[in-house]
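Structure ticket #2291
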Amino acid sequence: MQKLQWLREVAEGALRSELDCAPLASLPQTEGVNVLRALPGIGPFSAELILARGAGNPDIFPLHEPLFHE
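Resolution: structure written out below.
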């Protein structure tokens, strides 16, 4: 049931324009991650992927994925 609640809250955030591409892509990585992490169910790695892929910011380097650092 928790995942369903998170999904609803993310959908509500999208309806409130909290997931709009241009504003997210224009933020510094740390700030963008913080905005996304404010939505329940979005962790640090997911937030970075949303910024990189969903918001189309190719300059994002995932800081929270250890495999990228090996």
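Closing remark: The chain has a mean pLDDT of 85.
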